Amino acid sequence: MRLATAEAHVLSTAALGRRPFLPPDPIGSLRAVADRVEREVSPHPLAGLRGWLDGSGPSARATAFPAAELAAGERIEELMGTAAALWGGSPHAHAALAWKTYCYWTLAPVVLGYLAGRRVPVMDAANTVFSVADDAPMFSVRQIRPRFLALPHDPSAPHPDVEVVADEAVLLDRLRTTVFDAHLAPVLEAFLARVRVGRRTLMGSVASGVAYAVASIAQVVPDPDEVLAKTLLDALEVGDLVDVGADEAGRLVYRRRTCCLALTIDGDRTCSTCCVRTERR
Fold this sequence. Notes:
It is a single chain. The protein is mainly alpha-helical. It has one domain: Transferase(Phosphotransferase), domain 1, CATH 1.10.510. The chain contains nine helices and eight strands. The protein has a three-stranded antiparallel β-sheet. A three-stranded mixed β-sheet has the order 2-5-6. Strands 7-8 form a two-stranded antiparallel sheet. The longest helix is centred in the middle third of the chain and has 27 residues.
């Protein structure tokens, strides 16, 4: 009996030894943090990521804008036309709002990944699709292929969809080169070639997009909000375009140093974080 038991133990151990190790899906930690944001903060800041996080994809009725096309200067007028239909206003105003919206939804997955565990989705232009739909969520973004950057100690590091980088400095550098240099920068140039609006104004929306995403997501992670915001703003070289600080509870507060031009549309409104303050607010 003892021999049979020993043989069974050897066989079971061998069988276990042949069982392949399955590292965790890299998107899992992002989904978990997004779930907490939805429950504890608001469903709105990450609503446009739910389809990507859950693997359900965009609405069949959504209009998809592959980032590679926008970066190549294609369909920019179509995207601006969508903004004009939604918000009206002058060409430079609705172009600025189209860019602001596009920036936020492009940056939100990157901020989510960094805050969720330094696991950054690769959102270069070749790997990103932005969608606009009539139903909710109106704006959404997704990767074309699952690709992530992670640190060596990350549990998902052995996953085939993960590229391991040496340390956090390299991670932040790769974050910038993928989402900005290889995506937002060429789309920005395409906007500037078609509408008269200042580069600083548009870059301000990169800064505010990072700040808003951090302000929303950092409420459910342990790292200090202000430190996270300054780290990402500095990585993207836009730290001079938004003022950031912390309130008495340690939550991030911020204000743009540039105007997104929303105040020129529909009754001279201003955003809560705008650098232009009016008595009409």
